[in-house]
Prior knowledge:
Blueprint: E1 5-11, E2 32-37, E3 42-45, H1 50-61, E4 66-70, H2 76-79, E5 94-100, H3 107-113, E6 130-136, E7 139-143, E8 146-152, E9 160-166, E10 169-174, H4 186-195, E11 200-204, H5 209-214, H6 223-233, E12 237-241, H7 249-265, E13 271-274, E14 280-282
Parallel strand pairs: 3-4, 4-5, 5-6, 10-11, 11-12, 12-13
Antiparallel strand pairs: 1-2, 1-14, 2-3, 7-8, 8-9, 9-10
Helix pairs in contact: 4-6, 6-7
Amino acid sequence: MGGRMKIRFWGTRGSIPSPGESTLKYGGNTPCVEVRLSNEELLVFDAGTGIRELGNFLLNKRNNWQGHIFLSHPHWDHIQGLPFFRPAYIPGNEFIILGAAHPQVSLEKIIADQMETIYFPINVHYFSADVSFKSLGEGSYKIGGAQIDTMFINHPGLALSYKINWGNSSMVYMTDNELGMANGGNLRKRIVEFVSQANVLIHDAQYDDDEYKIKRGWGHSTWSQALQLAMEARVERLVLFHHDPDHDDQKIDAFLAACQQEAKNNGASLEIIAAQEGMEILL
Length: 283
C-alpha cells in the first residue's frame, strides 16, 4: 500500500517542559510527534506534554478516534502527557500504547504507576476508552498498514527507535540516543544501517560539543553527532529534536545555523531543520 505521510510536531523539548517568552519559536512541550498516513491511520510517537494539545486538536475535529501511541522509552518527559490526553477518557475510542518490553516490569504497570494517587488524582481506570498495551522488541511489524521497524538505541534503560515505511517514504524517529558512546562499535554500524537513506531523520540534538563534555553518559547527542550520522547514512532531511530545556530560541537558532554550515563545508546536500511545535512535514 502506498500514499503520503504527514508529520506534525506537538512537543520538541527534552527533559522537562520549558514554557516562556524565550522558547516561543521552538516550543516548550516535551516530545510528541504525530504521523498521519494517507489511509487516515493515526500514529503518535511519544506522549510528553505535547500530547495534550494533540488530544485537544483531535477532539476539535470529532470525538471518535483510534490510533497507536509508540513510546521511545518511559522516562518522565516521554509519558507525562498521557494523563492529559482527553481522547483516552471517551468511551468507544481505541488506543494501543506500544513500547519496549522491559525484563522486570510490564509497560502497563509503568504507565499505571505514574497515575497512582500518590502522584496524580485519578488512576488509569478512569480511561473510558479501550486502552491496551503491547510490548515490542527489535523487529519489523505491520501496524496501521505501515511497516514499522524497531531497534534498541543507546540511552539509560531501554529505549527504542522507530522507522516508519509507508509507500515510497520513510521516517526515522530516533530521540534519546547517545551517539557519542556508540562510535566505533557494532551498534554504530547498526544505527547507520537502520537510518540509511530515510526521507526524514528526527534525531536527538540536545547539546553542543562543549556541553557534551560534562554530560557524557546522560543518553543524548550533539547536533554535530546527529549531522555526522545523517551524512553517513545519506538521509534526505535531518530534524534536530529534543531541545535542551535551558536553550532559548536564539541558542537553537545558533545550533541550526552551525549545523547547516558544517553540512555545507562537507559538501552535503541534505536539508537540515530544527523541530518547532506546529511544524508539518509532508512526504
